[in-house]
## 1
Amino acid sequence: MKNKRKNILYLISAITLFANTTYSQTAKPIGMEYVGSQQYIGQTTQIKPKIQQQAPTINSIYSQPMKRVNEIPLYGKNKSTYFYSQPKQQTGIFSDGNLYMFGTFATGKTTDGINLQDKSVLDYIGSDAHDNMGNPTGLGFGFGRAISSTFNVEIFYSKYTGMNYGPFTAQAYEEELCEDEECTSTYWETSILNDYENIRGGDISSDFFGVGFQYNLNNIFGSVFGSNIKPYVGFQLGFAMNNIDDYTLADTYGLVDGDLMFVEDEEGNQMANPDLSGVCTASNPCYQRDYTDGEVTYIGKNNKTFGYGLEAGITLTLEGNMELDFFFKRNMLGKATTSGNVLSSYYVSETEFIESTDTIGSDCASQGYGWNGAWCVYEGGSYLSETMEQRLTESGDVVMNVFGVKLKYIF
């Protein structure tokens, strides 16, 4: 019986050993990896080809995504770090026309003032000393088209304001002076008097319509400024309308007209007018008119002329189909000129006078006249006199140097 049990035990052990041997040949060993039809390799390490991880891509508004090159966040000015070299998104009905619209702001200084057009004639109230029209401010807008990567054409309108005739009229006059005591030789001296204050008006503006041409210099200076900054030069040609409003000058001193009772001698002393001796009699009295509290209004004009401008600047590429130009421009917009019509307004006092033959003026009193030491006078009342006359025009070249900015939106 014991032998039978031993035999059964031996049989079970043999079967178990056979099963373990067979399983060991088909099971996956610990720490090993199956590679193709080869046997298992390695015990504690695995040898696998290293797969290179692709950099993440960035979804953008641009036609071709770019790979991320660093960890700077995608907002604000850093966005251009990734996209400045990519083409802008082309959408909309004008997307294939290379069109853009723009607005401009500029300010600067003028280089010429409003003065007498004919400075050789100095008997009229008019300036001969204004050297500028003030500081202009310009606003404008327009549309442009990129003909190529380096050449743009623009249609624009600009309006410049802030200019003025000036605070006064510097009247010029020439005076003959003696070079020696005997006055055997003389010379002429020109003097400037700020006699007439501009009390109102005289604003100057200029409207400029035209076409502009802009050439990009990035092919020449690109290595210096980089891809985001593009230098350029430009030229504008068009039609200018220069307007000067009416301006009114105050004639503080007034003037004397008609028969002059007194004149100055060679030494500047006042004396009775010798030309009227024996002329102004009781039967033929003379009249002197004194103009006081005067205002002289020069009527303005809108002068239509051609104008042009020269420009240089840089273009800065922004986000969202936007560009910003910083520029210097010299505008030469023709002349601003008055019409030549002048309205004069004065209070006039008319004095009637005759020659006095009495050293104490008794003859004047007997005829109802007053006496001033040389003439028998009768002062009438004053009245307001307004006259329109044609005088010399005043004009000046509207030339300005301005700095400005231009914001462009590309469709």
## 2
Amino acid sequence: MNSISKIAALSILPIMISACASTPNPAKVCTAEWIAPRADRAVERIEKRASRAIKTLAAASQTLAEGKTPGLFQSLAASRALGSLEKELKNGKGIQDLRTVAKTCNDPEIISDGMRSLLERQGVSDSFISQIESFGIYQDLISGIAEPETSS
């Protein structure tokens, strides 16, 4: 029985050591080569999950860019789209991944740059992106990067 416990302990040891080694060292990993693919994957995940909301916002931004006022249905759709996007930006896996990269490298601009590029690729106008960036939820997201996560 004693040899079985030694074998079990020895078999678990490499797993425990590898778990300790998997925490990235910011001084070594926070290079453009390390950040870019991780941030891109996270933004792609957000884009995939929020594509319908982003397309609706892009259509509303196009209407505004043309100097027109969105109609009632377009305004309602944009409002729902903002709610959907807010949900994804608060709780989505992509934003969690982006937060992890930003926190690891202590660089909240990784999130704002990633989100801006996502919206630009979807055809959202610069003026509408500026409005989104001024929303409280967006500001809370960016400012929350430096704060430790709380468990509920």
## 3
Amino acid sequence: MEKFLYYSPVIITVVIFLIQQRIVVTPEQLEKKHREILKDVEDKFTTLNSFKDLKANFSEMKDKIDKIYDCLIITK
């Protein structure tokens, strides 16, 4: 324990330096950054459910276009 007391000024100085240089982050800062990252991802990318719905809609539109094309060919 006496060794810690002897080196305590150095330990305090190093810890303060690490905090000032933002090498060590607090859980609060980490949570804030996490929210920012989630917001950026939400803005830039779509969800898997939305993608599947859009894909199903394209498939339905393709079927309808094929039916219209078939009707046009048959009437000629």
## 4
Amino acid sequence: MRRPAEGVWNAWPGGQLPALAVISAFFFAGGLVGCLAAAGAAGAGLQTLTDYLEGFLDAIRTAGARPPALLPLVWGVVRWPLLAVLLGFTALGILGLPLLFSVRGFVLAFSIAAFVRMFGGTGGVLAFLLFGVSGLVSAPVFFILGVQSLGAAQALAVRFLGDGRRNPIYGKTYWLRCGWCAAALCLCVILEYLAVPALVAAAAGALAV
């Protein structure tokens, strides 16, 4: 019998690697679809995408390096990790978490691919500044929370199906991990508020749209 101290990682047989493999596969599958969607845009869809990106860049140039509104910024940073955490409190997270990661992969890849398609290499730089500066921190956080939530959801499903074991799912390590991830997301908010606007404004000014 497994010891309770082994923690939530072992809710999946073999530890956290199977859960990581599952969410990674769905994330990259969603990303592939996002890239194909951006590359395949044509006609009215392509014109709509072009108009949106041009309007977005015009708004950046107008705002300059001014920090964005704080509450929408915070929501933009925490919404995906928060959904991952919430899905870990229900057995339905077994289905919801892979779907969440596939949607996140699609949105991120589509956004990056759209910038690259419209503006070439400079668009790639702009996409990195928009999504990559804080993403270097927020992406690992998203995956860490996703892995432990998927393990927790699987453990809840096993209990629902009648497994007699009652080892703790949400132990001290689980909440400590959530706390460290929350601190990392606070760093992302600081970067998005103080550093990213100036970097993006400079890159947008270099684009001849």
